[in-house]
Design a protein that fits this description.
Layout: E1 6-10, E2 16-21, H1 22-30, E3 34-36, E4 41-47, E5 50-55, E6 57-60, E7 66-70, H2 75-81, E8 97-101, H3 108-115, E9 127-131, H4 132-138, H5 143-146, E10 162-166, H6 174-187
Parallel strand pairs: 1-6
Antiparallel strand pairs: 1-2, 3-6, 4-5, 7-10, 8-9
Length: 188
């Protein structure tokens, strides 16, 4: 069987939950746990019940409370978030990259008190990927004092990497998913 595309899964409030395999989307729709949001399809799956047009997006019905799970800040996480690229000059030489504090360590207490910041020194909000040259040039200056701009970071809510999981409902067991996959493999 050829590899099928992935489908975006959103909550009943429209918030993104995850990206799932098309086979799981089929299971959720067939079980009445979700429905396609648009008429736009990205392929089809043949199965015993017929042909399933794979939607780009499915919406979960009554999924219950979705609790955000915040991933703790790490240097490696910052590098990944910024795509291993210096936000100041665009350098992508991995061996030349470091982590820069937007508000430097030496001035964080003073600035955070004055600006009433709601984050810590080592946080997603206060750190970016910088090449060693740019990091040394910036030194203990603030961005505003240097007259430079930061290339936009990936669109993350408050620059925090968030993953969500469904708390109050299991969306089909892996056993049921495996059963459907087995039927698909046998009927293709």
């Amino acid at each position: 069987m050829s590899r099928t595309p992935n489908v975006l899964v959103i909550s009943n409030t429209g918030s993104p939950i995850s990206v799932t395999r098309a086979i799981r989307a089929l299971f959720l729709v067939e079980q009445g746990l979700a429905y396609p949001v648009t008429d736009t399809t990205i392929g089809t799956i043949k199965y015993q019940g017929g042909v399933f047009s794979i939607p780009e997006v499915i919406q979960i019905k009554n999924c219950g409370y979705i609790k955000p799970v915040v991933i703790p800040w790490t240097k490696k996480g910052v590098l990944k978030r910024d795509n291993y690229t210096c936000v100041y000059c665009g350098d992508m030489t991995r061996s030349n990259l470091s982590i820069d504090h937007i508000i430097p360590k030496s001035r964080f207490a003073e600035v955070s008190k004055h600006k009433k910041l709601n984050y810590t020194l080592d946080s997603w909000e206060n750190t970016v990927t910088a090449c060693k040259k740019c990091n040394q040039y910036k030194s203990s200056k603030l961005i505003e004092e240097m007259g430079i701009t930061i290339k936009p970071k990936p669109p993350l809510s408050d620059f925090t990497i968030q993953w969500t999981k469904i708390q109050n409902r299991e969306l089909g067991s892996e056993k049921a998913i495996s059963s459907i996959e087995g039927n698909l493999n046998g009927s293709s």
